[in-house]
Amino acid sequence: MNLFNPANSIEKDTKESKYFVINSHEILSFKNENFLRPLSSDELNWSGLEIKRKHFLGYLNEASCFAVATEGECVLDQAIFTDLRSMLGRIPDDLFSVISRAIQIQHWFEAHKFCGYCGNELVEDSKERAMICNHCDAPPAYPKISPCVITLIHRKNEILLAHNVNFPENFYSTLAGFIEPGESVEAALEREVLEEVGIKVKNIKYFGSQSWPFPSQLMLGYYAEYSSGEITPDLEEIDKADWFKIDNLPNTPPANISISGKLIENYVKENA
Ligand SMILES: [Zn+2]
Predict the structure, then answer these.
(1) Per-residue pLDDT tens for 179-237?
(2) Cα 115 to ligand 1 centroid, rounded to whole Å
(3) Ligand 1: distance of its center to the CA of 132 in Å?
(4) What is the per-residue pLDDT across 27-64, written as a single tens digit (0 to 9) for each?
(5) Alpha carbon distance 150, 159 (integer Å)
(6) Distance, CA 52 to ligand 1 centroid (Å)?
(7) Ligand 1 centroid, distance to 108 Cα (angstroms)
(8) In angstroms, what is the span from residue 123 Cα to ligand 1's centroid?
(9) What domains does the chain contain, in order, with CATH numbers?
(10) CA of residue 79 to ligand 1 center, whole Å
(11) How many Cα atoms are found within 13 Å in the side-chain-facing hemisphere of 57?
(12) How far apart, in whole angstroms, are the C-alpha atoms of residue 44 and residue 98?
């Protein structure tokens, strides 16, 4: 079992260091391997890739980990750059947070080259992970995450699941939405549920959270009990929603991939 401890202060490369190689928004994997893994320093040296930038991420067990932004073709046998989303299910649980961090740190760095206040070039702060402007009083630009609330609504042995307009047929999930500036998580949850399916909920209970790097969400998972109202999908995001008996569910996200699946699996287990 790998244990990941995030850290920001720069560490040197060593023989044991591990490298998560990113090319634009894609991550390097191997076609002949079932699971995504970092490259060793030897593999990186022989990859033929041009290294644009390394970001220290923290420690996986004792080993320093880096996100490595590269250009060009990788000549390692069976290596391929793939969109991270299509790798879901092939990312080991214990590597998910470091890979999520690698992608988000690299994305943040690419997106903060210039000051949003005065337009001049930003430089890296020497003390902490931030981009700073030496031309004006702009606050440091830290890596940003976007909190989202994700909710499983229940009514005894039934749960409310919704079909997003972009989902495949007969695939349903929990409700989710971004938390607006100034809003509490609980207020966002009640607003999203009312907007998307037209019902009111009560007894909101926290379940757990998950980093979701598409591009930078932090999913905050909650249970909420049905209170009142008739299901009325908003027809913009949600085209269908219904109560499902927990012993007769449609296709839902797998629990090993997303917190949505974990919310459902855990509710079913506890109420079966
Ligand atoms: Zn500035």
Answers:
(1) 999 999 999 999 999 999 999 999 999 999 999 999 899 999 999 999 999 999 999 99
(2) 5
(3) 8
(4) 999 999 999 999 999 999 999 999 999 999 999 998 99
(5) 14
(6) 25
(7) 17
(8) 10
(9) 4-111 (3.90.79.20), 146-271 (3.90.79.10)
(10) 40
(11) 32
(12) 18
